[in-house]
Design a protein that fits this description.
Radius of gyration of chain A: 17 Å
Strand content of chain A: under 5%
Organism (chains A, B): Seinonella peptonophila
CATH architecture of chain A: Orthogonal Bundle
Number of helices of chain A: 11
Number of strands of chain A: 0
CATH topology of chain A: Tetracycline Repressor, domain 2
Distance between the termini of chain A: 49 Å
Protein name (chains A, B): Transcriptional regulator, TetR family
InterPro entries (chains A, B): Homeodomain-like_sf, HTH-type_TetR-like_transc_reg, HTH_TetR
Domain HTH tetR-type (chains A, B): 1-59
Order of helices and strands of chain A: HHHHHHHHHHH
Shape of chain A: elongated
CATH class of chain A: Mainly Alpha
Structural class of chain A: mainly alpha
Oligomer: homodimer
Largest sheet of chain A: none
Number of domains of chain A: 1
DNA-binding region (chains A, B): 22-41
Chain lengths: 171, 171
DNA sequence: GTCTATAAGGGGATAGAC
DNA sequence: GTCTATCCCCTTATAGAC
């Protein structure tokens, strides 16, 4: 049941935003009552926390791996795109949700992103390197637009196209 | 007074999102009362409408000009970036505000964006062309991140860097 | 034009029955 | 575990005094 709630919350949060989704909306979609939700979660914020936690773990892990194995730019961008697809677009939609900047900050999302930017920009990056790194990540993030609404996957050809585009941005 | 309200609303909407900004917030920042706001606007939605209208006009105008004068990719992207900077980042922050998708649709933002994508992708675009066009626009949109919070401008060097990056994406 | 006061409704959250 | 009923607060919006 708890997992069912998280699934629904994930979908509604990334469709209507956090502020635009009420506990009632979640309860109805799950097929229960508000109090039913509150048996499993102490607050609405707690739901968001759990929704964000898995994609955040993945992102941290990606960064760790990239550091340990000295990922090339291509490997890094490829893994980043895979992460976006895997998280079912939740994270990267909520990314821009201005109504939850505090929680996002609590999950240190900006810090993690900055780490990625610096990994992409190389050692001792110039200002230009940093601008290009940020732009490359933006290209990778457009993957969201191409995630099939049905099975949540993304066409291989498009994925390759995006990867190449991101690499061209860097150089 | 009405203009002052619009200014404040613009800032708060793009900082906290539409749902995250209450009429009270706006009133306090302006230095008046809720009813004071409602003397000038019939509803909160009406405020959003007016906030969006100017950047939307600019965007329409850009598309019209680009069509009439057969803008090259570079001209188009440059003008697009200028528009983002000029609009004081409002539009392009609200762009991703999931709590106002209805209003955005009413302003036909998606349609306008599609027009831009197709202008960038060239005539008879392949699927790859379209993917690259969307990616290039994403690069241009990262300009938001570099807009100085102080005077709302953007460093010329960064702007050029972004333009070149977007052009590399296309080819 | 701008205020205070208030209505009407929805939000998150809790109590207590079953 | 899940429900109904309820609380309290905040939101949008309006009425009416000044």
């Amino acid at each position: 049941m708890k997992n069912r709630i998280l699934e629904v919350a994930q979908i509604l949060f990334s469709r209507c935003g956090y502020a635009g989704t009420s506990i009632n909306d979640i309860a109805q979609q799950v097929g229960t009552s508000k109090a039913g939700i509150y048996y499993h979660f102490r607050s609405k914020e707690a739901i968001l926390d759990e929704v964000l936690s898995q994609p955040m773990k993945d992102l941290s892990q990606l960064i760790e791996q990239a550091k340990k194995n000295h990922f090339k730019e291509e490997q890094l961008l490829r893994a980043y795109i895979n992460g976006i697809v895997k998280s079912g677009k939740v994270m990267y939609e909520l990314w821009n949700d201005l109504s939850i900047q505090d929680q996002l900050q609590h999950h240190q999302i900006n810090e993690q992103c900055e780490e990625l930017v610096y990994l992409l920009a190389g050692s001792q990056p110039s200002e230009s390197d940093l601008v290009r790194a940020r732009a490359a990540m933006a290209v990778a993030q457009t993957a969201i637009q191409f995630i099939a609404n049905g099975d949540g996957s993304i066409d291989k050809k498009i994925q390759t196209e995006l990867l190449n585009a991101a690499l061209r941005v860097l150089n």
